[in-house]
């Protein structure tokens, strides 16, 4: 994917998955690439249509939650491009969990009952529902891994004021509730996800992508209770299968470990899984659309001219 240059561009940032262009001091152009990352490492091969899948799920979900809180999105000029307002980000991720899964389960099974200052009940099994969803924030690290942090430490360290925290908490729980409703209509359970927020003046905006396979975990609702009773693994829709493949090939992003080679067949499998996820989450057939770099640039220029 080419690196573009736009009139009035003031900055460019190449993230793990997206290229971000700052226009003036108030607009961001986010191009979702087909790069894929796991364990904070970019894997060696791109995944066809992944950028389009992520971008279009995020746009759909931002529109479906726009009545809950303001969000950054202004337009989607190309399949893998979003243009929106530049906010001053909170340096935290609002991770919300409906089930005891992933990092929460690893913490729990190690015998701990406190995660980010939040108490987890006794006698829970992996993937059980929490009595009510819990928020387990993490710091947004510029480099390396994000770190767990409690609400109290966020306020004490000035990462958010007490007043802003209350707003973030309320938005997070309301967004998660809406995400669960959308998922339920598609026969899915939204298990956990993360939200990122920022400010313009005194107003808090929802930023970035939401409810995508890169930021969320989904279970299939059909058979969930039965699998829980039998102690079986849940059928899930997320990029966890990529992490599992890496772990099976002795890679967890640790020093001295080598990313395993990705065969064309495996790349194709990952692409199909992302498309399946789009169709399951959105409930519409995926229409693959590949624009050339020049067509993408023109679409972005046209959209910017109308702001």
Proper CATH architecture of the domain at 89-212? 2-Layer Sandwich
Fourth-level CATH superfamily of the domain at 89-212: ATP-grasp fold, B domain
Could you please say which CATH topology of the domain at 89-212 applies here?
D-amino Acid Aminotransferase, Chain A, domain 1
Give, in order, the helices and strands. EEEEEHEEEEHEEEEHHEEEHEHHH
Attribute tags:
eight-stranded antiparallel beta sheet, 17 strands, D-amino Acid Aminotransferase, Chain A, domain 1, alpha+beta, 8 helices, 33% helix, globular, 307 residues
Structural description of this entry:
The protein is of the alpha+beta class and 307 residues long. The protein has a domain at 89-212: ATP-grasp fold, B domain (D-amino Acid Aminotransferase, Chain A, domain 1, 2-Layer Sandwich), CATH 3.30.470. It has eight helices and 17 strands. The chain has helices at residues 50-64, 102-109, 151-156, 162-185, 224-230, 240-248, 264-282, 293-305; strands spanning 9-14, 18-23, 27-32, 37-38, 41-42, 73-78, 81-85, 88-89, 92-99, 114-115, 118-119, 129-135, 138-139, 188-200, 203-207, 216-220, 236-237. Strands 8, 9, 12, 13, 14, 15, 16 and 17 form an eight-stranded antiparallel sheet that branches. Strands 1-2-3-7-6 form a five-stranded antiparallel sheet. A two-stranded antiparallel ribbon has the order 4-5. Strand 10 and strand 11 form a beta hairpin. Helix 1 (50-64) runs parallel beside helix 7 (264-282). The longest helix is centred in the middle third of the chain and has 24 residues, at 162-185. The model has no long low-confidence stretch (mean pLDDT 94).
């Amino acid at each position: 994917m080419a690196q573009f240059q736009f009139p009035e561009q003031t900055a460019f940032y190449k993230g793990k998955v997206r290229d971000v262009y700052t226009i003036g001091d108030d607009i961001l152009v986010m191009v979702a690439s087909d790069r894929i990352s796991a364990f904070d490492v970019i894997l060696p091969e791109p995944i066809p249509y992944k950028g389009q899948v992520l971008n279009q799920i995020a746009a759909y979900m931002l529109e479906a939650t726009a009545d809950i809180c303001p969000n950054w999105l202004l337009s989607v000029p190309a399949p893998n491009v979003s243009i929106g307002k530049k906010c001053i980000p909170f340096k935290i991720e609002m991770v919300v969990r409906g089930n005891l899964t992933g990092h929460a389960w690893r913490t729990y099974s190690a015998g701990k009952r406190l995660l980010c200052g939040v108490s987890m009940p006794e006698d829970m099994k992996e993937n059980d529902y929490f009595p009510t969803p819990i928020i387990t924030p993490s710091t947004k690290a510029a480099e390396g891994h994000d770190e767990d942090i409690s609400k109290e430490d966020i306020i004490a360290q000035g990462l958010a004021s007490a007043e802003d925290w209350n707003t973030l908490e309320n938005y997070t729980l309301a967004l998660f509730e809406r995400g669960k409703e959308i998922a339920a209509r598609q026969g899915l359970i939204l298990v956990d996800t993360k939200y990122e927020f920022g400010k313009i003046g005194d107003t808090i905006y929802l930023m970035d992508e939401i409810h995508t396979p890169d930021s969320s975990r989904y279970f299939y609702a059909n058979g969930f209770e039965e699998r829980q009773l039998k102690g079986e693994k849940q059928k899930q829709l997320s990029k966890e299968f990529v992490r599992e493949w890496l772990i099976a090939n002795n890679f967890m992003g640790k020093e001295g470990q080598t990313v395993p080679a990705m065969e064309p067949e495996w790349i194709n499998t990952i692409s199909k899984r992302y498309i399946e996820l789009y169709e399951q989450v959105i409930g519409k057939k995926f229409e693959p659309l590949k624009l050339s770099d020049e067509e993408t640039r023109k679409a972005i220029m046209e959209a910017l001219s109308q702001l």
